[in-house]
Write the structure tokens for this entry.
Amino acid sequence: MALLEINNLEAAYGPVQALRGVTLKVEPGSIVALLGANGAGKTSVLKAISGIVEARRGGVRFDGKDITGMDPDRIVGLGLAHVPEGREVFRLRSVRENLILGAYRRRDGDIAADIERMYNYFPILRERERQRAGSLSGGQQQMLAISRALMARPRLVLLDEPSLGLAPLLVKEIFAIIRRMRDEGMTILLVEQNANMALGVADYGYIMEVGRIVMEDDAAALRGNPTVQEFYLGMGGESGRPATQRWKRKAW
């Protein structure tokens, strides 16, 4: 059974419809990439899953349980963590305090051990543990945001644009950790504009345009698809062709 199932999901911001019948699933222990250009609706999918945006139609099931319309704090309690775009950290709190806040719902005695695990993922956080999060670099804040989410010991992590605004070396480091998270049993739904990096770590992928899923397949198959290569991986194609004509040439 899929850990996450979305069926015919529709959502809107006032009169603007953001999602138009989105259907997808995420299998346990996998990385699923959700790809698309700016404005395609990728972030709206994550917000609808985590309860930040209300679904108008359709449904979301997590581990067999209908979570459509459920309050975000209850969804977190079920084992779903959302790392939003923009590296949202508690800027006036230290690195260590941010990590402790990530475990605020837990009542076990392993929090210190999990903080050490986060420091093993991202050693720079150990060096900066007493530093205010707002004074970290963009890459370090992204590492902290991911680590804080993992402190909740989630069963599913929603990652929104983890590479946004980061230098290439930091992007490689972040994606190495994402792969490690999957190898250690984590399930991840990854929203990412860097399609090449995302498909390099993902098991399966979906492509969105204008609020709809327009293509899905194994990640390796998507990487080999000529349309995906031209429009999302920047390989080949006719760069001088007008955008409206390029649109017409898409497989969908």
User: Anything to note?
Assistant: The chain has a mean pLDDT of 91. The two ends are 29 Å apart (CA to CA).
